[in-house]
Amino acid sequence: MILINLLPHREVARKRRREAFQATMFASFLVGLLIAGLIYWWFQMMIEQQQARNGFLQSEIKVLESQIKEIAGIEEEIASLRARQKAVEDLQADRNLPVHLLSELVNQVPEGVYLKSLKQDGAKVNITGYAQSNARVSALMRNLEASPWLENPQLIEVKSVVLNGRRSNEFAMNFMLTRTQPPVGKGKK
């Protein structure tokens, strides 16, 4: 027997294709939604991990800032100690300066020059005195310039005065003390 299909087979096939298309579209939508959800979840996990790292870094930064403050305090203390050490070293270096000053003045003051006053202000020394002539004042300045402990003599003033019935020159002079040791001669240690 011969069977003849009188039903519209094209519409049934079209309906099946439409249903298959709608099913694949729905499945694609669900897969896309699932993929989007997974991506969203993955990004949220990454954000949480980064926030955890940021929190850890912030706590470490606070620890480091406190250590930096401690180091700054220690550096200030070290600077203070170095300043004290330098002050002590300067005092030790300067303790012999008056001895050298007086010793050098005894050796460098020529005959005919008499010192009236001596005033020291740090490394600067001011002397006043009397000299028999201007040449003696010049000799004193040359001697002071040649001294290893005294330097930069500057004559402030020279004026003529009568002292004990004799004519003399009163002078005022400044010079500087040096902290360096005088050069040691050959063969001496």
Could you please describe the fold and organization of this structure?
The chain has helices at 9-94, 97-108, 134-146; strands at 113-121, 124-131, 150-163, 166-177. With 189 residues, it is an alpha+beta fold. The longest helix is centred in the first third of the chain and has 86 residues, at 9-94. Strands 1-2-4-3 form a four-stranded antiparallel sheet. The model has no long low-confidence stretch (mean pLDDT 87). The protein is rod-shaped. The chain is built from three helices and four strands.
Tags for this model:
189 residues, alpha+beta, four-stranded antiparallel β-sheet, 3 helices, 4 strands, 23% strand, rod-shaped
What is the count of helical runs? 3
N-to-C SSE string, H for helix and E for strand: HHEEHEE
Structural class: alpha+beta
Mean pLDDT: 87
Q: How are strands sequenced across the largest beta sheet?
A: 1-2-4-3
Radius of gyration: 51 Å
Low-confidence regions = none
Beginning-to-end CA distance, first to last residue: 142 Å
Main sheet overview: 4 strands, antiparallel
Instruction: Estimate percent helicity.
Output: 55-70%
**Proportion of beta-strand residues:** 15-25%
Shape: rod-shaped
What is the total tally of β strands?
A: 4
Question: Which helices and strands, and how do they pair?
Answer:
Layout: H1 9-94, H2 97-108, E1 113-121, E2 124-131, H3 134-146, E3 150-163, E4 166-177
Antiparallel strand pairs: 1-2, 2-4, 3-4
